[in-house]
Structures are given as structure tokens and as C-alpha cells.
Amino acid sequence: MQFNLAGIAAMLLITAFGTGLAYAAAKKALTPIRTFSHTVSTITENDLDIPIQEHAGSSSETELLYRSFNTMMERLNRSFSMQKKFFGKGSARAKKSTCNDHHKCTGGKVGAVVC
Q1: What is the rounded CA–CA span in Å between residue 99 and residue 80?
Q2: Which terminus in the chain has less CB density within 10 A, N or C?
Q3: How many CB atoms lie within 10 A of CB 73?
Q4: Predicted confidence (pLDDT) per residue in 52-83, tens digit
Q5: Nearest Cα to 102, choosing from 111, 93, 90?
């Protein structure tokens, strides 16, 4: 078998074109995932109620991922809000109760022994 220079050049050109085309397709397909990952990494406990916007032109799988993540964040935000309310009310009551009991036990005297 004899390879000529034109055949080898054509083969290299086709390989380079195919590789470039595959790279471009993979980059386009992964852009929504990259955007999602970046956005998720910026979320803090103070902004759990901000939904992640779906990327234009994303596939149905990534749209499902965005919706599922936003639903999970809504649930977490509700849970954290309920915990804050519960502990906020509970700690205020406990503090008031402790202060009242301390005042009763010490007769309001500073430095008295707590009963």
C-alpha cells in the first residue's frame, strides 16, 4: 500500500475538523451545566429564595435539573424560615423565663447566688 502526501493531508484535515466540531458541540452542550454549577456555588444561606434561571436553549434534562434544584431550594428556605421562627420565639421565651426566675431567686440583688 502506498500513501501519498495528499491523502495524508486530507486525513489530518478531516481529523482536525472532526475534533473541532466535537469540541464545539460538547462546549455548547455543557454550557448550561457550567452556568448552573457557577450559580450554585454563589448561593449562601441568605439567598435561598432566589431561583436559578433556566439557560436558553438547554435540553429537557437540564431544564429538569434546574426545576428540581429550585424546588429543593424552596423546601430548604421554608424549613429554615420555620426553624428561625421557632428558635426565635423559643429563645425569647427561655431568656424571659430565666431572667424572671433569676430575679425571683436573687431578690433582684446583683451578685446573689442563683437557686
Answers
A1: 28
A2: N
A3: 18
A4: 887 666 678 888 888 899 999 999 888 888 88
A5: 111
